[in-house]
Amino acid sequence: MSDVSLTVNGKRVSGSTEDRTLLVHFLREHLGLTGTHVGCDTSQCGACVVHVDGRAVKSCTMLAVQASGSTIVTIEGLANGAELHPVQAAFKEHHGLQCGFCTPGMIMAATDMIAHHPEGLDEATVRAELDGNICRCTGYHNIVKAILAASQAMSKGSKGRAKQAA
Amino acid sequence: MYSVNYHRASSVADAAKQLKNGDAKLLSGGMTLIPAMKTRLAAPSDLVDVSRLKELQGVKVSGKTVTIGAATTHYDVSTDEKLKKACPALAHLASLIGDPAVRYKGTIGGSIANNDPAADYPAALLALGATIVTNKREIAAEKFFKGLFETALKEGEIITAVTFTAPAKAAYQKFRNPASRYAIVGVFVTKGKDGVRAAVTGAGEDGVFRSKEIEAALAKNFDASALDALKVSAKGLMGDLHASADYRANLIAVMAKRAVAAANA
Amino acid sequence: MGIEGVGARVARKEDKRFITGGGRYVDDMVVPGMKHAVFVRSPHAHAQIKKIDVKKAQAMPGVVGVLTGKELKADGIGNLICGWMIHSKDGTPMKMGAWSPLAVDKVRYVGDAVVIVVADTKGQARDAAEAVEITYKELKAVVDATKAIQPGAPQIHGEAENNLIFDWELGDAKATDAAIKSAAHVTRMKIVNNRLVPNAMEPRAALGHYDKAEDHYTCWTTSQNPHLARLVMSAFYNVAPENKLRVIAPDVGGGFGSKIYIYPEEIVCLWASKKTGVPVKWVADRTESFLSDAHGRDHVSTVEMAFDKDNRITGLKVDTIANLGAYMSLFSSCVPTYLYATLLSGQYDIPAIHANVRTVYTNTAPVDAYRGAGRPEATYVLERMMETAARELGVSPAELRRRNFITSFPHQTPVIMNYDAGDYNTSLDAAMKAADYAGFTKRRADAAKQGKLRGIGMSCYIEACGLAPSAAVGSLGAGVGLWESAEVRVNAVGTIEVLTGSHSHGQGHETTFAQLVTQRFGVPIDSVSIVHGDTDKVQMGMGTYGSRSGAVGMSAIAKALDKVEAKAKKIAAHLLEADEGDIVIENGEVKVAGTDKSLPWLQVALASYTAHNLPAGMEPGLKETAFYDPSNFTFPAGCYICEVEIDPETGLTEIVQFVAADDFGNIINPMIVEGQVHGGIAQGVGQALLEGAYYDGNGQLLTASYMDYTMPRAADLPSFKISTSNTPCPGNPLGIKGCGEAGAIGSPPAVINAITDALGVVDIAMPASPATVWAAIRATKH
Ligand SMILES: Cc1cc2nc3c(=O)[nH]c(=O)nc-3n(C[C@H](O)[C@H](O)[C@H](O)COP(=O)(O)OP(=O)(O)OC[C@H]3O[C@@H](n4cnc5c(N)ncnc54)[C@H](O)[C@@H]3O)c2cc1C
Ligand code: FES
Ligand code: FES
């Protein structure tokens, strides 16, 4: 057993758990954050993607103790109160989800993708960068559309904000 | 996963000490070890986490000498500006490993320690004539990779860095396994002051290897056309669900040609 | 159409919870006192169980119970069944072998459940599962259906000699043989339809909770049809009578057929909950899903297609061997029969058809419906034959199809189906135009200059959906009726709840069904809620599969809406002192046509519940139920065109263009329909290029994780060009045909036709992986 302390969605949390507890299970079972899912045992499907210290990682392939001290954002913490994150909004608007099971991981991966491509995204890049996220429902068509739309909306938004700041 | 005790090392020396516990194993990015533990194929009693050690992180380039800390992630290798100038082929290789989330966590040290026969880095290190630096000694890549999942590492030995001289030309071409995204065949070619080297991953029954045939053909003429007549033998190559040995032999020739073309581009 | 009514691209109501992490799947459910289960599964494909010793496991930390099949049988839990009776052509009933939820004396495939271990944590349950000692005596296994029916093959069930389950036929053998004999040309092929694993991203899960005080069971399960689950579990498996069993299918993360069936795990979890006195949750890990979810397809067919001198098809003869795996899953028998052979006429006017189907036990996972179920197999047979025939006859593939299209409706095929409406030329034209078919020759030449092989292929599919007319399927052997039910509850303040027996696991029912209501009464979509997936809330239903939720489920809602509308109009006429026939409901108002007299919808609803002033003799309330039983199947159809570019050095195939032109009848929400097509195409392309389940000779599944089973990723697919041109379905009140399976049905032959076109070969096996394509190229060179 080890003590784990994390900042999750802006809140400091701590708990004691077996060392073998995966981060995803800690989030789901100890913190009740069931938006993060488990879809495989081989670290390939991405249903479990969360942000750890600003990077999108697979929470099924990390121990909770390994993450101790880190700052974590899950799907539950992405929206700003009632206001959806632009990627969430784009997934809804463009029908980027069906059963919703892959969706939290997709959205967390997509926000990271957009953040790491300040130069903007094209379809080929989005498709390549989705290699670690499997969706069985959508055929990816609308996921790709949603990510491209969100990336554009966010770059407009950030330019807008930059202007405001100036 | 079986029960396990986790330790976060405070230094390489501390890690070496902690490794003496039971059947302890190093934990770096965890991208290989944790999946293996989840499916109960690996069952260490203790894990010694070295991923947060600053002394094991980062890419250093001085002149032609490149040194990469063992705990440097694939993402950090693939995006390192100095490396992209000194040896863009290696940055490119790192960008082809797995997927973005794997690249954020997986490390070069973990990859080569694991020596998966379908992993990408072993081909690079072999073709670059790299040296693997551990807390005990330095090992030439040639001596380091020993068959499937086997390396020259001794019990308790910790890789601290990888170092090599940047070659004049280099490139990596990978043909991915459609399911796992690992290499079915990956070929890394280099042309440096010690001549031409070509290393092949994904294909050999004994893991990564240097292809004498390719090197001989390219030694005379470092051009893709020099490989036109190349016939790679399927002997000693792996055959599985995804690729027969014959197919792998073909891919070696094709990837080698494309790598040379890319190196010359 | 209003902005939220029928035909509008309304963003989905259900999305809010999914994009914020608020979805509620079975694994998210927590019940006080809940414990975790792990199943001990057979590592052997075929073996006798000599001994099971659970003592060590029982003594492990955290263990609450370790239970075996013997105890399960002793408690009277029944065997799993196949719910559709098929008779062989000699009149004998299908040979169904016993499938015990926990194997008792024999295991028949790798993954067969043998023991359940319940413990405080999943980790502890797994630790204990490893301590269960089972002694097996291994038997020889057989995985290939064509080998399993050979004399001397290992016998899997005592009931089924030579592993043959049934030998069934449909159509006119004599007429077909005669057509082949007198044909100007006969095209012959052996056609293999590869085995697939459905792979819904949410693994199967079950949570069984026995309430001792009430002697009542609750089962949360990943099901596409909770009512059917309850029915079968009470009527056949003896878990509990229906009134003592509540089945809840909350949010379900995809199904594609694999979550229709009742599996051993939910039965065993319910029973184990009673046995151990604690709620028991089981969640499959992915490898467990690969091993134990029902697989799809796995057909081998020998086919002959006869043509006259004018290239008209005169006969089609199909001989199919279908692998049903180790046990007969719930609908397994109807998939290669009534959902397959009945579609072998395709879009073509074929005077004589004969299909013979043999189904076979093997030591592999049970095989049942997977998206399309039988219809992809039929389409693949036909559309590969048409392509090959066109090449042999030297005519263009489009021309050969056109020549044989059915153009007048209704059309009775020789294999049961009566097509009610369609316009196949229109979808073919639309697809060819969208694909710039005419420009292909130039694109091929350009590709050749880059050293690439470019090919184009088409597929004209038809499917029978809207499952299904109850009496018709009953006469063909179905154990249930395939109607649907709906209840429309108008609340006193005018908000509306629709209770439906359909189940949404990604299809967006909470939105499309609400659109239907919005259209009818003009109330805002947010005031409409769709309730589904809980047997305590919805009286009865048949669930979601076979593209039936639109055509059947929504028709039931439409019928209930009719009743509500009629009653509301009566009340309004009474209140407004107008003639009932003059009342119209529009934009949330109930009006007297041609006057300015009106009442808000809310007031009519309220009046129905206050009951202060209702027409004489009228019961209070505004709530109606309807059952809708379709009069016929529906027949979505369309044309798909795929264009590929192949790297001849590596065999890598890139889909450079994929066009779909579908006829789905009327459409409620085009955005959702397009999404269904996208997903279906991805699965069809997956089947053609990437996916295949392989067992080795000992019955070990070689593709038991995503490391070996190739799931389509974003980079494997292009964006799709899709369109619809709709002929309304005359068979149901909404004119809907259904769209859930088309993509998966129409696409595999289009892809393979394109690849064989590019390579200049007659056939290539699915999945046409790079290695397979490369080997085919090499073979053409030798
Ligand atoms: C979905 C997925 C896809 C992948 N695709 C690819 C791919 O395409 N190509 C590819 O090459 N790899 C691929 N990988 C593997 C990935 O690159 C891993 O990151 C890598 O193999 C292991 O590195 P790690 O840092 O994660 O090591 P860990 O998993 O932490 O450790 C691996 C092994 O190395 C040992 N070890 C770790 N650090 C050291 C050290 N400093 N000294 C000595 N021993 C050490 C550990 O004890 C362990 O035995 C993939 C992995 C996943 C999950
Ligand atoms: S659950 Fe983490 S990658 Fe599949
Ligand atoms: S929406 Fe169902 S898996 Fe992606």
Features:
heterotrimer; A: 166 residues; alpha+beta; Ubiquitin-like (UB roll); DNA polymerase, domain 1; 2 domains; five-stranded mixed beta sheet; 6 helices; 39% helix; 15% strand; disordered C terminus; C: 782 residues; Aldehyde Oxidoreductase, domain 3; Aldehyde Oxidoreductase, domain 4; 3 domains; seven-stranded mixed beta sheet; 20 helices; 28 strands; 24% strand; globular; binds flavin-adenine dinucleotide; binds FE2/S2 (inorganic) cluster
Characterise this structure.
The complex is a heterotrimer of chains A (166), B (265) and C (782). Chain A has helices spanning 23-30, 64-67, 86-93, 103-115, 123-129, 141-165; strands at 2-8, 11-17, 49-52, 55-58, 71-73. Chain A has 166 residues and is of the alpha+beta class. Chain A has two domains: 2-77, Roll (Ubiquitin-like (UB roll)); 86-161, DNA polymerase, domain 1 (Orthogonal Bundle). In chain A, strand 1 and strand 2 form a beta hairpin. Chain A is globular and about 45 Å long. By secondary structure, chain B is of the alpha+beta class. Chain B has helices spanning 12-18, 33-38, 74-79, 81-86, 88-95, 100-105, 108-114, 121-128, 141-144, 212-220, 245-264; strands at 5-8, 24-27, 46-49, 59-62, 65-69, 131-134, 138-140, 159-165, 169-176, 183-192, 195-201, 209-210. Chain B has a five-stranded antiparallel beta sheet. In chain B, strands 9-10-11-12 form a four-stranded antiparallel beta sheet, sandwiched between helices. Chain B has a three-stranded parallel beta sheet with strand order 1-3-2, with no helix packed on it. In chain B, strand 9 (169-176) and strand 10 form a beta hairpin. The mean pLDDT of chain B is 97. Chain C is of the alpha+beta class and 782 residues long. Chain C has three domains: 18-23 and 30-139 and 199-292, Aldehyde Oxidoreductase, domain 3; 296-467 and 632-781, Aldehyde oxidase/xanthine dehydrogenase, molybdopterin binding domain (Aldehyde Oxidoreductase, domain 4), CATH 3.30.365; 483-628, Aldehyde Oxidoreductase, domain 4 (2-Layer Sandwich), CATH 3.30.365. In chain C, strands 3-5-1-12-9-10-11 form a seven-stranded mixed beta sheet, sandwiched between helices. Chain C is globular and about 90 Å long. The interface between A and C is large, with 55 and 57 residues.
